[in-house]
């Protein structure tokens, strides 16, 4: 794959939880797309099993009804806040959906990677994660260190 390694990382937006509805039911049909300025990032849960690390996160709408379509972008950052240039993919089994997000409702997504301890000599550290809503350019920087009990190590 050349100088950029493909990571076992997945980000997928899913319409989970009460209050989320597809535009086809009439709720929010024609609603404008969501932007970072009207969303906040929420930590939901963290799990680790047999080398996999799963971060469930959510975008919370703090404004008027809007829509998200597609997958959030994920950027890995070093301890100085600089981008770590690794290729990040999406789980292709998850179809692209439009999620209508009413005020104070959540759109959940999962970020998954393989822990660096399972690939000695082929791992790197990512001190921060940046999550950007679909079709937007402004992201939210998240510090995973407290929940992870240390800087996450990821397989390349």
Summarize the entry for a quick read.
The chain is mainly beta. It has one helix at 145-148, and strands spanning 10-14, 20-21, 39-49, 52-61, 66-69, 73-77, 83-84, 98-101, 106-114, 123-125, 128-132, 140-142, 153-155.
What does this protein look like?
The chain is an all-beta fold and 156 residues long. It has a domain of 101 residues. It has one helix and 13 strands; from the N terminus they run ββββββββββββαβ. The strands form four sheets. It has a four-stranded antiparallel β-sheet, with no helix packed on it. It has a four-stranded antiparallel β-sheet with strand order 7-6-11-12, with no helix packed on it. A hairpin with a 2-residue loop joins β3 and β4. The protein is elongated.
SSE blueprint and pairings:
Layout: E1 10-14, E2 20-21, E3 39-49, E4 52-61, E5 66-69, E6 73-77, E7 83-84, E8 98-101, E9 106-114, E10 123-125, E11 128-132, E12 140-142, H1 145-148, E13 153-155
Antiparallel strand pairs: 1-9, 2-8, 3-4, 4-9, 5-8, 6-7, 6-11, 10-13, 11-12
């Amino acid at each position: 794959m050349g100088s950029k390694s493909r990571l076992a990382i997945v980000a997928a937006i899913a319409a989970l939880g009460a209050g989320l509805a597809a535009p086809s039911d009439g709720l929010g049909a024609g609603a404008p797309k969501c932007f970072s300025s009207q969303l906040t990032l929420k930590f939901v849960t963290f799990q680790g099993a047999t080398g996999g690390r799963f971060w469930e996160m959510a975008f919370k709408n703090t404004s008027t009804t809007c829509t998200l379509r597609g997958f959030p972008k994920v950027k890995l950052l070093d301890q100085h806040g600089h981008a770590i240039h690794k290729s990040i993919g999406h789980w292709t089994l998850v179809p692209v959906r439009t999620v209508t997000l009413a005020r104070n409702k959540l759109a959940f997504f999962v970020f998954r990677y393989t822990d660096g301890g399972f690939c000695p000599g082929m791992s790197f550290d990512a001190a921060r994660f940046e999550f950007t809503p679909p079709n937007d350019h402004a992201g939210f920087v998240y510090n995973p260190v407290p929940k992870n009990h240390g800087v996450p190590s990821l397989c390349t």
